[in-house]
């Protein structure tokens, strides 16, 4: 009794509201309370009647297809009333019970069927309401008016149908010719009011205590009586069908925007009311009926189920609901999945997915690269200190400094290479390497080109090739290189590619497409077998070959000359050079060079005297 009072008190707290898919706070509060109400109302806690109501607006269009038996039964009763001049006393109890049982047998979705009459229509009883319903694979029928006052104004399925305002009720006139013996009698006309779908009424979901002891929703169609065609049809009762919501699943999971199909066996009214934690996703379970917790909480991608020996790998929705129902502390840590190891899209445990590079190799190569940069800075400093020495002066200190600067730029690429791979890092790595390559080898080419021009002159000719003239040509090539790098960056930006080792461990590399096919061919096979550590070593060695070897070839001979203090000044007399031709003939060449400075006009006169032996 105390439990019944609590339920009645909960019922008084419910207010009528319109369900909204937007999920505002007030609506969700009402739905949560409705779910609690469904959980607590049961066969053992209700009193006779239909007062346990859920004031939720349901989309009844899903069930309109099942209303035809009620409409046909109501219209048949209306014809009987016309035949009996407003009374059904000529019918028997058995006829009414056969009608309602037949409706239940006719469709598996129909849980119950009833015919409820106004007092006096069937004068055998003060009130008469035969009802049939399914129970234990059979159909039971009885008169619910014995223990239940369906005429009470609080009975929604009857009173709302009776009081509904109707306009343009369909009234039809039929012509009938009865038979007597072997001849037909004269035709007569019969005026009959006919109910349609719009004349009926859908109830809110309610618990039918004492009827079917189940959560049901009822559609009631009025039974009309009319004495003549000019009268307004009078309400004389109704015929109704019940759809058992106990067999309809409560779907508490979030709405799937990609699925527009609606299942008549699912109650979508409670969407989004699950209690799954943020690391899990709700998956509805079918066939559990009108009850809360009909779902499982599976781990989201990137998380794994903490209990290895439990199947299925999901938290049971009923256990989750019970925990939050009885625990005041809404702590979700008990029902949370564990985050996968870095780099894992999905996982079943905490095993690593990413290749862990050797910190020793990375640290060692970075220290060596810093040492390389420091050495290049020292070389550039020594070049500045000995800029007036003949061996440095004739090699053009400006371009020697540019070569050092280009080498430092190429070295800086390695530090970007050691950062975590991202699209920004991949784009940044393009520039220091290729700009440094252009600056270093562009300077070397300019110097070589000037020497080639000087020594390719076969006759005496004044050549004017100062440094600023070479810088102009250098800048033109630089603009071209810059445009190529810009085109590369924006027309074919790099992507991040995942490579797996033989142990199925992943690591990420920058992929530059067709622009770097020449570099990618040889190293791809090595990467899949050796991992990311080999990638660091290959990049380090590549930079050392480009930078260290080139710097050594250019500067070591010059510093060796400075160290030995060798005088390479040009002699004032002619130099005699003996050469052998391809035919092994001896040729003597007298060269009369003028002193040359890279920033001065270069003039060279050559004289040749050949002696054949």
From TrEMBL:
Q: How does it sit in the membrane?
A: Multi-pass membrane protein
| Keyword Acyltransferase belongs to the record | no
Can you quote a single GO CC term?
A: neuron projection
Segments of this protein annotated with the region Disordered: 588-613
Q: Which UniProt keywords apply?
A: Cell membrane, Cell projection, Disulfide bond, G-protein coupled receptor, Glycoprotein, Membrane, Postsynaptic cell membrane, Receptor, Signal, Synapse, Transducer, Transmembrane, Transmembrane helix
Pfam families for the chain: 7tm_3, GPR158_179_EC, MCP-like_PDC_1
Molecular function, one GO term = G protein-coupled receptor activity
Say yes or no: keyword Cell wall biogenesis/degradation present: no
**Span of domain G-protein coupled receptors family 3 profile:** 361-513
Q: Which InterPro entries match?
A: GPCR_3_C (IPR017978), GPR158/179 (IPR043458), GPR158_179_extracellular (IPR054714)
UniProt-listed PROSITE patterns: G_PROTEIN_RECEP_F3_4
Bilayer-spanning residue ranges? 363-386, 398-417, 437-458, 470-490, 534-556
Please give the PANTHER family that the UniProt record associates with this protein.
G-PROTEIN COUPLED RECEPTOR 158-RELATED, G-PROTEIN COUPLED RECEPTORS FAMILY 3 PROFILE DOMAIN-CONTAINING PROTEIN
Family per UniProt?
Answer: Belongs to the G-protein coupled receptor 3 family.
Q: What name appears for this protein in its UniProt entry?
A: G-protein coupled receptors family 3 profile domain-containing protein
């Amino acid at each position: 009794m105390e439990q019944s009072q609590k339920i009645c008190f909960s019922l008084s707290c419910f207010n009528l509201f319109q369900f909204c898919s937007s999920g505002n706070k007030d609506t969700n509060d009402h739905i949560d309370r409705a779910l609690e109400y469904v959980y607590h109302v049961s066969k053992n806690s209700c009193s006779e009647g239909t007062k346990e109501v859920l004031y939720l607006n349901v989309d009844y269009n899903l069930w309109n297809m099942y209303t035809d038996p009620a409409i046909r039964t109501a219209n048949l009763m209306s014809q009987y009333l016309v035949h009996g001049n407003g009374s059904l006393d000529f019918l028997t109890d058995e006829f009414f019970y056969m009608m309602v049982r037949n409706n239940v047998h006719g469709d598996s979705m129909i849980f119950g069927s009833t015919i409820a009459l106004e007092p006096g229509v069937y004068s055998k009883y003060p009130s008469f309401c035969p009802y049939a319903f399914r129970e234990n694979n059979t159909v039971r029928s009885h008169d619910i008016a014995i223990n239940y006052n369906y005429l009470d104004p609080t009975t929604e399925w009857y009173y709302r149908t009776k009081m509904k305002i109707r306009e343009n009720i369909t009234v039809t006139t039929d012509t009938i010719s009865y038979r007597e013996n072997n001849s037909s009698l004269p035709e007569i006309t019969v005026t009959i009011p006919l109910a349609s779908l719009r004349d009926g009424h859908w109830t809110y979901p309610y618990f039918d205590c004492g009827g079917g002891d189940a959560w049901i929703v009822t559609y009631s169609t009025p039974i009309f009586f009319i004495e003549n065609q000019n009268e307004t049809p009078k309400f004389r009762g109704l015929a109704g069908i019940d759809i058992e919501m106990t067999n309809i699943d409560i779907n508490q999971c979030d709405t799937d925007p990609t699925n527009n199909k609606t299942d008549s066996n699912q109650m979508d009214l409670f969407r989004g009311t699950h209690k799954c934690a943020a690391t899990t996703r709700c998956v509805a379970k079918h066939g559990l009926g009108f009850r809360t917790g009909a779902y499982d909480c599976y781990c989201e991608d990137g998380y794994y189920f903490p209990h290895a020996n439990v199947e299925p790998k999901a938290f049971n929705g009923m256990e989750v609901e019970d925990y939050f129902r009885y625990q005041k502390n809404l702590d979700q840590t008990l029902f949370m999945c564990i985050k996968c190891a870095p780099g894992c899209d999905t996982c079943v445990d905490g095993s690593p997915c990413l290749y862990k590079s050797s910190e020793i190799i990375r640290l060692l190569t970075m220290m060596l690269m810093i040492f390389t940069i420091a050495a290049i800075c020292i070389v550039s400093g020594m070049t500045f200190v000995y800029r007036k020495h003949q061996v440095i002066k004739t090699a053009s200190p400006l371009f020697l400094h540019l070569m050092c600067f280009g080498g430092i730029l190429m070295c800086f690429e390695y530090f970007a290479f050691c950062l975590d791979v991202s699209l920004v890092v991949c784009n940044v790595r393009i520039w220091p390497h290729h700009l440094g390559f252009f600056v270093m080898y562009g300077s070397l080419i300019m110097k070589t080109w000037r020497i080639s021009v000087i020594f390719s002159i076969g006759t005496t000719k004044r050549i004017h090739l100062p440094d600023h003239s070479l810088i102009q040509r250098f800048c033109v090539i630089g603009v071209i290189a810059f445009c190529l790098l810009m085109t590369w960056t924006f027309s074919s930006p790099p992507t991040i590619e995942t490579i797996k080792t033989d142990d199925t461990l992943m690591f990420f590399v920058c992929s530059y497409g067709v622009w770097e096919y020449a570099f990618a061919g040889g190293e791809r096979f090595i990467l899949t077998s050796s991992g990311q550590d080999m990638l660091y070593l290959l990049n380090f060695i590549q930079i050392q070959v480009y930078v260290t070897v080139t710097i050594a070839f250019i500067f070591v001979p010059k510093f060796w000359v400075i160290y030995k203090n060798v005088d390479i000044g040009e002699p004032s007399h002619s130099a005699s050079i003996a050469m052998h031709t391809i035919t092994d003939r001896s040729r003597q060449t007298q060269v009369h060079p003028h002193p040359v400075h890279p920033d001065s006009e270069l003039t060279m006169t050559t004289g040749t005297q050949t002696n054949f032996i």
